[in-house]
Amino acid sequence: MIPAEAKVEVNWQALAQLQLKLATLLDFEALLQEVLREVTANTAAKSAAVLFLENLTGTGNIILRPVGITRYTPGSIQPLRESIGFSIANSSDAAISAWAEHRFYTSDETNSALKPLIDVLQWQKWAGAPSFVGDQLTAAVLVEIDGALSALDQGWLSAFSAGVGIALKNTRLHTQAIAGLNARMNELAILQRIDLELSEQIEPDHVYEMTLDWAMRYTGSQCGTIATYDEATNALRFVSELGYEGQADTRAMMRASARGGIARRVANSGRSDNIPDITSDPDYMPVAAQIRSHLSIPVNKEDRVIAVISVESRKLNHYTDDHMTFLERLAARAGNAMDNARLFAETVSEREKLSRIVSNIADVVIVFDENNNVLLMNQSAIPVLRLYADGKYEGKPAAEVLSDTALLEVYDKSRTYHQPINEEVKMPNGRAYNAQLSWHANIGRILVLQDITSLKETDQLKNELISTVSHDLKQPLTVMNGYLELLQLTQTFEGRSLEYIQNARRSIMNMRGLIDDLLNLAKIESGIQLNVSSLEIKPLLQGCINGIRGAAAAKMIAIDFSVEPVDLYLAGDLTSINQVFSNLIGNAVKYTSPEGKVTVKAEKNGDAVLVTIQDTGLGISPEDQARIFDRFYRVRRPETDNIEGTGLGLAIVKRLVEIHRGQIGVESRLGEGSKFFVRLPLGKPEAPPAEPEAAQE
Ligand code: ADP
């Protein structure tokens, strides 16, 4: 209330202007300072203080607190602001009651509720005027006075303080709005920085550590972890941790035994989890002492949880919704970076694996880029191209690296024709290579060299043998056959003589067949056509033995022959099977000393026929046993020096047995003889001739 006598004397216009000026101030603290200054300037007050509602939006217990005092800076008043407050609800205090009734109050001797403040300020006498916003007592302006305050000062103070409440309230709201905006701006700035920093990071460990560091700093956490999550195995892998003390191994073990604890729960649910008190959470893993609250946030990548960020605090109920929102925003950004980092790490490891494989393969591999410079070259290239072992060839032009070799021509050809090239080249190291050059988009030209020297040598040997065999054997056979034909044309043969001639011609034909088989060894390799039929074993083996009998008799070698059961059949191609057994029995006789013994035995063995050719001959050492089936391999020993052979027989035998889906093996001891086994598929006896129709009736 404005005292009646002051009404005429207060300079209302000046006051209105002053209040207008106060209303333009937007900063709470600046406004307070202005209020205090104006009060002491316009009245006889020695100093002043402003009380203001603690919480404008608060309900229940409304408290006035000292917010501005002459000579107190905002910093020095802070302890008073926090410790001194005057409840205004139902207050029986004289000052507060007076203000509640819109009255000016001048202190008397009664012990006011405001005494703690007055004592601190060391005021002897004081007065105060209230300020309302609507019906609510919002502020009070207190002044330190000597004696009584003049009616004019009282009037001015009452009128002035009436506007202080609303001005303070407005600036407080404004300040809060600005603070909120600042916090948001700050958060945005932080997120922007995070974006920038994360986008520059591709190393997974850095990405994890940086993300965790930001999460902990923003939330004021003491510890934190990042765990990557694999949906397929439902497993977490703790990849980064900060702030924990003691043994990391112990923590890792605890986490493993708890299968990830809260972090795993969050990974499974895909939802953030704020645990204000960890003692109430059964999934909490006590990996660090003194931790009271925990916050875990999932990191998503396209609806998939790929990681979990967890932060922990020593304060109970530490994490706010703001913390959670910030961490979720951080997680959204980190998700991409983490995924990129993971992909990058995978690519790097794949690349390393690949380059290790390339550098270790025996073939020469050189990759040239679009400008014909070396992009990659493996170790094998060094000796083949006669380069320096410690030289750096990446980036060097093809013309330099391939210089003085036939490869340069091949390379130029590939550039001209843009076609994959496959050519045989002879390199300066004297070896032959198969060079393949092909163009691959986004990579360049890939040159691969395979060493085919041994293949070439074998090929050469084979060619020599074949030409010898075909020339030296085929030629006389043709002549022999021709004379026999001529003989039959000029002479008439009957009975036994005709049989002899025909036997001789058949033998010639058999030999020709054998030679043709030899010539077609390559054909066997690439899969010859078998004319499979059921072959009765006894006559078949007998035929083979008969063919060798002459040689055996010459060395007085006895051939023992048995078939059990007698009517045993095998399924095979006649020429090939003949070739197999003639060869094996022939070898047995050939590699057995005079007066030795050869045993040929055929028996049924499950669904196969087992033929054993055993001799009492030279025997074969274990090392040679491993090689006798190789092409052109002959045992070189003094005992075998005078024995003729090509080293091809067993190679052909093995191949023929294999293409019959059979097996061949040898058991032998040097000096004691050898035992060759052949297993071949069982054949069926030929169907008996059909019964006459009459007999069926
Ligand atoms: P070749 O008999 O023309 O030398 P093979 O391929 O038939 O060629 O045999 C390879 C080698 O295996 C022979 O050189 C010989 O040393 C050895 N060998 C084959 N059969 C016997 C055998 N029954 N006893 C001892 N050695 C044998």
Note the main attributes of this structure.
697 residues, alpha+beta, Beta-Lactamase, 6-stranded antiparallel β-sheet, 5-stranded antiparallel β-sheet, 22% strand, rod-shaped, disordered C terminus, binds adenosine-5'-diphosphate
Radius of gyration in whole Å, from Cα?
54 Å
Provide the residue-averaged pLDDT: 86
- What is the terminal separation in angstroms? 145 Å
Write down the oligomeric state.
Answer: single chain
Structural class: alpha+beta
Biggest sheet: strands side by side, in what order?
Answer: 3-2-1-6-5-4
CATH H-level superfamily title of the largest domain: GAF domain
Count of spatially separate domains: 5
Instruction: Write down the CATH class of the largest domain.
Output: Alpha Beta
Largest sheet: 6 strands, antiparallel
CATH architecture name of the largest domain: 2-Layer Sandwich
The count of helical stretches stands at 21
Specify the overall morphology.
rod-shaped
Helical residues, percent = 40-55%
> Hey, roughly how much beta strand do the residues contain?
15-25%
* Topology-level CATH name of the largest domain: Beta-Lactamase
Polypeptide structure, described:
- The protein is α+β, with helices and mostly antiparallel strands and 697 residues long.
- It folds into five domains: 175 residues, GAF domain (Beta-Lactamase); 149 residues, GAF domain (Beta-Lactamase); 91 residues, PAS domain (Beta-Lactamase), CATH 3.30.450.20; 73 residues, Helix Hairpins (Orthogonal Bundle), CATH 1.10.287; 150 residues, Histidine kinase-like ATPase, C-terminal domain (Heat Shock Protein 90).
- 45% of the residues lie in helices and 22% in strands.
- Strands 3-2-1-6-5-4 form a six-stranded antiparallel beta sheet.
- Strand 15 and strand 16 form a beta hairpin.
- Helix 2 packs antiparallel against helix 6.
- The longest helix is centred in the N-terminal third of the chain and has 49 residues.
- It is rod-shaped.
- It starts with 11 loop residues before the first helix and ends with a helix.
- The C terminus is likely disordered.
- Bound molecules: adenosine-5'-diphosphate.
- Adenosine-5'-diphosphate binds next to helix 18 and helix 20.
